[in-house]
Amino acid sequence: MPDHHSTFADLGLKPVVVHALRRVGVESPFPIQTAVVQDALAGSDILGRAPTGSGKTLAFGLPLLQRLSGGSSRPSRPRSVILAPTRELALQIEQALDEPALALGVRVAAVVGGVPVRRQVDRLARGVDVVVATPGRLEDLAARGSVDLSSVTISVVDEADRMADLGFLPQVVSVLDRTDADGQRMLFSATLDHDVDELIRRYLRSPVTHTVDVAPIAERTAEHYFFRVAGPEKDSVVASIAARDGRTILFLRTKFAVDRLTDSLRSVGVNAASLHGDKSQANRTRTLASFEDGRVPVLVATDVMARGIHVGSVSVVVHVDPPADAKEYTHRAGRTARAGASGVVVTLATDSQMPAAIEVATAAGIDAHFVAVTEDDPVLVSVIGARRPPGRPVAEHFPASATGTSAAATSGSRPGRAPGSSRSPRRGATGRRSGRR
Ligand code: ADP
Ligand code: MG
């Protein structure tokens, strides 16, 4: 049994994997990884329950890659499928597995909605070992015969509860039904409610269950503030928070509200970008990349963003619209203070919203500070560095991308590669993961 001090090598991972992880700054396993890797390497079905940010991707991803290494997949017949609820998550999984996959000679490609089918079909036809997909798009390609899933011997369902929330279970079922019935299956979820039980019963055979029960928030070093603001002052409080230095994510309930706030922030000189489900995939990818590389410090988002997106060091998360419940609070708040970093989570509530907000805080089990604030309140300055917005409107959304040469203008954390770039994509059906080095 691995103990707390196991290394990745102790867990049975090959030296090339250990070195690949070291190259991206991953030195020692997180608890869920220590718990899962050996069993997954042994081929067991796995049921993993762990909160957001606990490191599930590598927990299932490393054993999966290592088990596939050495073999090869025939055209359009991948040997593994990883299902994720959103495009962003699928792309992040692909990215997280990039180094170890490269080291093991395993080909990984994302197949997500919102990018041209043609390119994905071509990519699959050139041979892909692991498909990281949103269930709808993959089911689509399978149904039309563009991909044959019968050789899939390792399937992963990531964020199963989220899949259920989004109504994707029929497609998940349909994809899993096409895979090898004797294959290994792993299912991960922060919670096991919803219809997740049903999936587990149907697809996992005597799974090894691993639960890592860190209170998702309390464990981390986030501080939680509930600011009570008068309705008429709320807009200027939001603007002064958004004008702070450092990466900030603002959550609102509707796409309309997100766009409206983004425009209004930009009109007072805050370089904000919006992220929600109506944006094209290219736009969302570019927005995340700009946020990640710091050119756009403020992201205004609906809850599409609230889960599983890993942008390092977001120092402040603001619930501009108070979250509906503890679960939503937790998912949104999980964007900051990741992997032990510190962060501040702010909820803005008007008088009438305050009682519900207090209930949410109680249910989320957080130790929150409740403070009444006015615009220009020194508390805003001391807690999060709020300041008056510059006032001069921000002109373009992505000023540096016009040249196409600016590092990371459009390419996530990989400098110099634009999505859809003609530079022969070696990995990744999205074209985003073009050959590097
Ligand atoms: P989850 O899927 O459980 O929400 P992720 O797998 O996305 O979590 O990991 C969360 C963050 O922690 C990511 O930024 C990832 O790079 C980082 N991470 C994962 N495992 C390790 C590790 N062993 N050491 C350091 N950082 C890690
Ligand atoms: Mg995850």
Polypeptide structure, described:
The protein is of the alpha/beta class and 437 residues long. The protein folds into 2 domains: 15-211, Rossmann fold, CATH 3.40.50.300; 217-384, P-loop containing nucleotide triphosphate hydrolases (Rossmann fold, 3-Layer(aba) Sandwich). It contains 16 helices and 14 strands. The chain starts with 14 loop residues before the first helix and ends in a 53-residue tail after the last helix. 53% of the residues are buried. It binds adenosine-5'-diphosphate and magnesium ion (MG). Adenosine-5'-diphosphate binds next to α3.
In short:
It contains 16 helices and 14 strands. It has helices at 15-23, 31-41, 56-68, 87-96, 98-104, 117-125, 135-143, 160-165, 169-178, 196-203, 234-242, 255-267, 281-292, 326-333, 354-364, 378-384; strands spanning 46-49, 80-83, 108-111, 130-133, 154-157, 184-189, 208-211, 221-228, 248-251, 272-275, 298-301, 316-319, 342-349, 368-372. Residues 56-57, 158, 308 line the site of magnesium ion.
List the helices and strands and how they pair.
Elements: H1 15-23, H2 31-41, E1 46-49, H3 56-68, E2 80-83, H4 87-96, H5 98-104, E3 108-111, H6 117-125, E4 130-133, H7 135-143, E5 154-157, H8 160-165, H9 169-178, E6 184-189, H10 196-203, E7 208-211, E8 221-228, H11 234-242, E9 248-251, H12 255-267, E10 272-275, H13 281-292, E11 298-301, E12 316-319, H14 326-333, E13 342-349, H15 354-364, E14 368-372, H16 378-384
Parallel strand pairs: 1-6, 1-7, 2-4, 2-5, 3-4, 5-6, 8-13, 8-14, 9-11, 9-12, 10-11, 12-13
Residues 56-57, 158, 308 line the site of magnesium ion.
